[in-house]
Amino acid sequence: MGKKAWLFLGNESGSETAAIMYTLIMSCKRHSIDPYAYLLDVMDRIKKSTLKQLESLLPDRWLPAHPDACLEQRVQESHAAAYRKRTRRAARRAKLAKC
Known about the structure:
By secondary structure, this protein is mostly helical. Helices cover about 65% and strands about 0% of the residues.
């Protein structure tokens, strides 16, 4: 689905820009950061940043300075999913041990 949806973005430059934005948004989701808050802050600060400061704008390095942008619900969902996965594994192992 993604390949077809991104196929016609105007030109090659538009495709590259869309890929970069999509990567940043998915990186925010991976680190449980509100993508809107991140992009709003970064787009404002990127104009004034030097090359050395750009690394601090990456999502994993940006979050410690902006803890209010952490999506607590996503963190809880992630922990709950990990717990369910561990529980299912333990049940399968216990079942195999009985055989």
